[in-house]
């Protein structure tokens, strides 16, 4: 049986940083949590989503000092969000429409999880290549 609701496929819990956190703080958090993105939140409000790619492309590649640049400066601001009770098809449509791979899941204004393209692939077709890649442990480096 296919998962129909976002809450059935999302990764619960949110790893978040303050908008004024440095990119180094965010990157260290990503490394310790073994994730590629963090939610940028100011109290209860989701300000943006910061990915490892954002840090690389929008900051490091430009030669900026990641100790002095804030998460707010580099993150994708005002991200598209979904609710836990939204349909998975809605999340997929939003990912396509906005060309994003992850959506914060927000309930009553609070971030409660994240749903990624990999989460959806794993739920829809566990035997797919994308599902296999999503389940794989990242390179230890």
From TrEMBL:
<protein>
    <submittedName>
        <fullName>Oxidoreductase</fullName>
    </submittedName>
</protein>
<feature type="domain" description="CBS">
    <location>
        <begin position="10"/>
        <end position="66"/>
    </location>
</feature>
<dbReference type="Pfam" id="PF00571">
    <property type="entry name" value="CBS"/>
</dbReference>
<keyword id="KW-0129">CBS domain</keyword>
<dbReference type="InterPro" id="IPR046342">
    <property type="entry name" value="CBS_dom_sf"/>
</dbReference>
<dbReference type="InterPro" id="IPR051257">
    <property type="entry name" value="Diverse_CBS-Domain"/>
</dbReference>
<dbReference type="InterPro" id="IPR000644">
    <property type="entry name" value="CBS_dom"/>
</dbReference>
<feature type="domain" description="CBS">
    <location>
        <begin position="75"/>
        <end position="133"/>
    </location>
</feature>
């Amino acid at each position: 049986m296919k998962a129909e609701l976002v809450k059935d496929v999302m990764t619960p819990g949110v790893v978040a940083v303050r908008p004024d956190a440095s990119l180094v703080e965010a990157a260290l958090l990503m490394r310790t949590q073994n994730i590629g993105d963090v939610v940028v939140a100011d109290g209860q409000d989701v300000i943006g989503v910061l990915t490892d790619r954002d840090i690389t492309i929008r900051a490091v590649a430009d030669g900026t000092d990641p100790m002095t640049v804030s998460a707010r400066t580099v993150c994708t601001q005002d991200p598209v969000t979904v609710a836990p009770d939204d349909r998975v098809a809605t999340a997929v449509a939003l990912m396509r429409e906005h060309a994003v791979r992850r959506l914060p899941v927000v309930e009553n204004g609070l971030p409660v999880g994240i749903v990624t393209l990999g989460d959806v692939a794993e739920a829809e077709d566990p035997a797919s290549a994308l599902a296999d890649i999503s389940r794989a442990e990242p390179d230890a480096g």
